[in-house]
Design goal:
heterodimer; A: alpha/beta; Glutaredoxin; Rossmann fold; 4 domains; 4-stranded mixed β-sheet; 4-stranded parallel β-sheet; globular; B: alpha+beta; Ubiquitin-like (UB roll); N-terminal domain of TfIIb; 3-stranded antiparallel β-sheet; 12 strands
């Protein structure tokens, strides 16, 4: 495209970060050196503009390498992907993890959201303010919305830009940890607590969704298979796509991302769309303050999500899947990345899956700090390289979704429920929970409790039962108030415990 | 030539089916593909709109045109929702009025709506009280610094505003974003919907959002080609001709004394129509009829701003 850029040029580091993602520039038309032949040939058009979806990834690449996005880097991304610089800027300034102003390589995001606030985040911030000065680029620390490690509050995420970038979640954090991350580097901090920490029930008999957490090595596909992994996929491939959809309908499974839409109906509607291709998107952008249930699965049993997505894609005729993962989950990213690689190598993903002739592949797209990107249509915009703003509905994703094509969007927890549905059958699954709300449910309990964490209980449990599961409040303290849900949730008093 | 639109060519489309629906108890039939807003207008309902543009794809940003549709859990934006057979629409229920009142109050408290047409009538009609959030916050000199995720919680003593210095960086038009409601119309007109120049976009997030060039460079550094099609669609006067801006500052701008004359642009052979706004025998602004089949309200720099030679006396 004939775009106008300012004269700012990218440094070698910035160019290299982008080139490593999208390859070298072959001509002046793609941001490379302009030579004599460029003037005689025209590239671009739809081909060049079809790369817009790489904008967010390219911004990540630069921000990871340098720590911020300079005018030169922004221009280079725009030239390479044929995106106007004002558009790249509009995307870069949308996400909290990016900076378009110069800042040091080391930055610590200190969570000040509800669970962390209840466990001393304010004290941490006050100390940091006194020792380092006010939050911002000069001091290196900044306030952050919920980082999703509420069971180990108060939390912080330290980032040191470089090649490779170092991202380290500190939880629980102290002001000393933050100062150490800034002055010596996040790599010197103690290793993060095991993912099993988030699941106090880990290892208990009778768990369904969390049964493998703590028992299985999240990095090993062999261990996953040894713990009954990929049996649900085998079952689904035997049944055929329509039968899978019918089982999910029979199970009564409803979306666990918040809207509680019947999953089977969503799958059926998408599968029947004549427009091609179909896409599958996993919403792993849980950003609601106090929510970390998806992380417990992503870090404790990452292969289960990949298996569930493979089944979902098979049932809905999707050719490609995207896991939209929030940028604040670096460990989930590493584990998922490893799991995808292993699954592909074993033939569970890619061309001709398990010799069936059916092909499907998955990729991870990282968010960059935006609560709104948990909204299903905002995810589409974010993946496509636009600002993560919700779209107008209708049309709904089942008709016009990612890249304008029929798309199924399901939350992580919703997807992993598909495994027991395949294994038990829809009717047997529907026996769990209540008549209206079937199946097991994950609840995140955090704050001043003895054992905060993710708990699996059937629908129908009371608030009091769950607080009891979490060990109640510490000795000598009384329960004063409970926030149900996150930012838009409501508070109840400490004596209103029989709520279902 | 006078400003009659009857002489413009009429484009004949395919014949369309009529859809019948009910608006405030009145039955109305409109062509398939029409919006609820079209249907409401057809029965004489006056629905307020801000982000709606007759030449643009609806963005559903401002939320003032919301109506109640039977069977819908939430209010729906009438400017974008297409009519369906037998749908029952209500435009004046307490729920609709409450929603419009709140939207007008929030916009009125944060944005300078002094040059937005009709807004005074709407405020009165819906009994909106934008002042109830407190006195407006003073001018912010750092609105173009974007730190998404970093919240600056106020103390409640003032109402947050878009107040900021006007952007006067060229001789042709001025950007006064204190008057901006972030309706995206200028962005869409500059982008794929008309001009394909892509000089501006929305930068930042949430209340800190702002229409901006890349890194807030001044317009002469940006991709702007001064077609002025953003001014044409701006609903609040945030974008205005430098001539209008200067006259308003001097206190000489007076629309009651202006005449509008639609004529043919003589710069090239395309045939765009210009509407010359004349005050005291001087051209003070140029617009273009949106229903003209050549330009649909769009012009280039020459048609929009190339009128000085006419008045070199």
């Amino acid at each position: 495209m004939d775009l106008k850029f300012t004269d700012a040029t990218a440094h070698e580091d910035e160019r290299d970060a982008v080139d490593r993602l999208i390859g070298e520039a072959h001509s002046g038309w793609y941001g490379g050196e302009r030579d004599a032949t460029d003037h005689r040939m025209s590239y671009g058009g739809h081909q060049a503009r079809s790369e817009r979806h790489l904008v967010l990834e390219a911004l990540h690449a630069v921000n990871d390498r340098v720590g911020w996005i300079s005018p030169g880097a922004l221009n280079y991304i725009g030239r390479r992907l044929s995106v106007p610089p004002a558009d790249v800027y509009s995307v870069a300034t949308f996400y909290a993890l990016f900076s378009t102003a110069p800042r040091p390589k080391r930055i610590v995001h200190v969570c000040t959201d509800v669970a962390c606030e209840a466990l001393g985040a304010k004290g941490v911030c006050d100390t940091l303010q006194a020792r380092l000065g006010p939050p911002g680029a000069a001091s290196g620390w900044k306030h952050s919305p919920c980082l999703g490690v509420c069971e180990r509050a108060p939390a912080a995420m330290a980032v040191e830009a470089g090649d490779p970038v170092v991202e380290h979640v500190i939880a629980p954090t102290t002001a000393d940890d933050v100062v150490q991350a800034l002055e010596v580097g996040p790599a010197t901090l103690a290793a993060e607590a095991s993912p099993t920490m988030a699941v106090p029930q880990a290892g208990d008999e009778g768990l369904i969704l969390l049964r493998r957490v703590g028992r299985v090595d999240p990095e090993s596909i062999d261990d996953y298979i040894a713990h009954d992994g990929y049996q649900a996929l085998d079952r689904a491939l035997e049944m055929g796509p329509q039968a899978v959809v019918q089982e999910v309908i029979a199970s009564g499974l409803m979306g666990r991302g918040g809207a509680a839409f019947p999953t089977g109906r969503k799958w059926e509607a998408t599968a029947g769309q004549p427009a091609q291709p179909h896409y599958l998107v996993c919403n792993a952008d849980e950003s609601e303050p106090g929510t970390f249930k998806d992380r417990a699965i992503l870090e404790g049993d990452p292969f289960s999500l990949i298996e569930a997505m493979t089944i979902a894609a098979y049932a809905t005729g999707a050719v490609r899947g995207y896991i939209y993962l929030r940028g604040e989950y670096p460990r989930s990213y590493r584990l998922l990345h490893n799991a995808l690689h292993a699954a592909r190598k074993r033939g569970y993903l890619g061309a001709d899956i398990l010799g069936t002739g059916w092909s499907f592949d998955l990729e991870i797209r990282r968010g960059a700090g935006a609560y709104i990107c948990g909204e299903e249509t905002a995810i589409f915009n974010s993946i496509e390289g636009y600002r993560g703003e919700p779209r107008t509905k209708p049309p709904f994703p089942v008709e016009v979704g990612l890249f304008g094509k029929p798309t199924v969007v399901n939350n992580v927890e919703t997807l992993v429920n598909v495994l027991p549905i395949m294994e038990l059958g829809g009717a047997a699954y529907a026996q769990i929970g209540t008549e209206q709300s079937t199946g097991p449910k994950l609840f995140c309990i955090s704050g001043n409790l003895v054992r905060p964490g993710v708990y699996e209980v059937p629908f129908g449990s009371t608030l009091g039962e769950m607080i009891e599961l979490a060990g109640g409040v510490p000795e000598g303290r009384t329960l004063q108030a409970i926030l149900l849900g996150g930012a838009a949730g409501s508070f109840v008093r400490g004596d209103e415990l029989d709520i279902h | 030539m006078t400003a009659t639109h009857e002489r413009t060519p009429v484009e004949m489309g395919m014949p369309v089916r009529l859809v019948t629906l009910s608006v405030d108890g009145q039955e109305v039939s409109v062509p398939e593909g029409s919006t609820l807003l079209d249907a409401c207008t057809a029965v004489g309902e006056d629905i307020p709109t801000l982000c709606y543009g007759d030449t643009l794809t609806p963005k559903n940003a401002c939320r003032v045109c919301m109506v109640e549709v039977e069977g819908s859990r939430v209010l729906v934006p009438s400017c974008s929702r297409k009519v369906t057979e037998n749908v029952v629409v209500r435009t004046d229920t307490e729920r609709v009025r409450h929603s419009r009142r709140l939207v007008l109050e929030l916009l009125g408290s944060s944005v300078d709506l002094s040059t937005t047409p009709h807004v005074e009538e709407w405020m009165a009609e819906y009994a909106a009280d934008p002042g109830r959030f407190g006195p407006p916050a003073p001018e912010d000199l750092h609105r173009d610094v974007h730190e998404p995720g970093e919240h600056h919680a106020g103390d409640g003593s003032v109402a947050e505003t878009m107040e900021q210095p006007d952007k006067v960086d060229n001789d042709l038009y001025v950007r006064d974003y204190s008057k901006c409601i972030l309706c995206y119309k200028c962005v869409d007109a500059c982008g794929t919907q008309w001009q394909n120049t892509f000089a501006i976009q929305v930068a930042g997030r949430g209340f800190e959002s702002q229409i901006s060039t890349e890194f807030n460079v001044e317009l002469p550094e940006s991709a702007c080609v001064y077609c002025g099609n953003c001014i044409e669609v701006c609903p609040t006067g945030a974008l205005s001709f430098k001539s209008e801006y200067d006259m308003r500052a001097e206190g000489t701008w007076n629309e009651d004394e202006q005449t509008q004359t639609t004529t043919l642009c003589t710069f090239c052979g395309v045939g765009c129509n210009l509407t010359l706004h004349v005050q005291d025998n001087t051209i003070v602004k140029v617009s273009s009829p949106h229903d003209h089949s050549v330009g649909h309200g769009n012009l280039c720099i020459k048609g929009r701003f190339g009128f000085q030679h006419v008045q070199n006396r």
